[in-house]
Write a structure and sequence with these properties.
The protein contains 18 helices and 21 strands. By secondary structure, the chain is an alpha/beta fold. Among the domains are: 106 residues, Alpha-Beta Complex (Oligo-1,6-glucosidase, domain 2); 103 residues, Golgi alpha-mannosidase II (Immunoglobulin-like, Sandwich), CATH 2.60.40.
Length: 604
Amino acid sequence: MLSSWLSSLSGVLILLVLIVICHSEAVLANPDWWQKAGFYQIYPRSFKDSNGDGIGDLNGIASKLPYLKDIGVRAFWMSPINKSPMVDFGYDISDYREIQPEYGTMADFDNLVAEAKRLGLKVIMDFVPNHSSNQHQWFIDSENRVSGYEDYYVWDDGKTNPAGGRNLPPTNWIQAFRGSAWEWSEKRGQYYLHQFTVEQPDLNYRNPKVVEEMKGVLKFWLDKGVDGFRIDAIPFLYEVVKTSGGVYPDEPLSGTTQDQEAFEYLDHIYTQNQPETLEMVYQWRELVDQYQKEHGGETRVLMTEGFTTLEILKEYYVSAEGRLGPHMPFNFGLITDVDGNSKADQFVKTIESWMAIVPKDGVANWVIGNHDRPRTATRFGQDRIDAMNMLILSLAGASVTYQGEEIGMTDVFISWEETVDPAACNAGEALFEEKSRDPCRTPFQWDDSAMAGFTTGSRTWLPVGPNYRTVNVKVEEAQERSHLKVYKAMMKLRESKTFLHGLLRVRAMSDNVLAIVRELTGNNTYITLVNLGNNSEVIDATGLAQSLPSKLRFDAVGVSSHHVRGGAVATNDILLLPYESVVLIARTAALDHMYESICEAWLE
């Protein structure tokens, strides 16, 4: 009996010691909800239609939130749902505090937020601060010189025309969708700046009233229960101040193209990445942090879209004086710096370059697709769908998945007659394919029924992809192996302690094989191997982590893998077929297993 009692006491003591260790680890290293989260981008117009009009809507999104919960994402952000003439499909906002009627009502939005909270999902709004619609009341009042609104937008008389008649545009500045960034207003008798379409006039952030207006917009949606914002087109927010002579300077030629209408024709040193832009972002961060202090609850996050240099993006994290910027300045390196022809060492360089700018207390993030760029499966090739999803979900920090990437959706050819994207329409029939964003915005493929289960109607705002009968959620859920099941398996792996806290190392094992190692002392070590090439490769993984056993086990395998989950392989002799991707696990000793299981149970 004494022996039994001592054994029990010993077990209790071990448990108590482990609990203390686990608790200490939790206090020191327990991440905030967003820091290791999977984020999911919804393009509302194309996600799910609930009323049969061929256009996605809020009720459609709400009906599919259980799907997001099931695939393991923590939060979703929606491209703009604000009231809009839809010239740029929501990025031309005519009322920042109203819902676009074809998407639903404010009551529908409230129901969406309530359903998300019930499921434990976070709701992220798209915030478009650089410009409004020219149908916004602010612009109408500004164009008519209504008192208090005269300088809500960027106005200029323009240059004297030597030939007489109406003045010429103030500068050579070019908008993102081709052509002059200045538009003449007959009502006001001046030019206004628009860095996107003529229907999207730039707001003037040098006017304190505009700054306060937009802060009010953020507070409005925070009061509605949203959990953060993705901030659009940040680099365009400010323009250079006028010279002492009262004029804006012309921008220099970039030397990259001879097309004088193309955005790339100029080096945009006076219309992008001005110092005041960072100051504005720091103020928005202070606003959401203060909101949390005053209202409680979990962190409200800021995510910013800015295609710019790493040197500038480093300052987005934190200023030299220690002022905080957005929680997640989007990392587009895996969109801009690599493609289907890139070798493993280029991926390593891209990953390590971003990690080098992340501050000590900062969090990395990884984005491989969005509504403005060709889909991952199109850009890297359909053979690499699993490779790219396994890659970003193996890296440290937060991940961002554009709707459809988890099932391997591809771009859809959209004819000139079907094209609706203003970037493509402005380019003209000869160049529209090069500029169009329509191919990556087609309706989500839910099942193999008519219209891919996106709508009960007979037509959709953009054509459904021709491969929808084989590439859809229903089919992939039923398959023994599918891109969707690989994605879900990887999301499940990210819940482990090693993926939450482990050290990250990346290495090129050959020209085409990339290794990602996640290691945490006393826990399982995970090694992700990605074969980017079309040849088989044999990999020796013994040097990738300390004290690896002679055999490793497969914890996740891509669709085309010849391995099976749970199977073993010699650590120094791992055969990868062309384009094969796998996650290998080096299991800890029995006591470490007990430690991890007790920790996880205690922390839950």
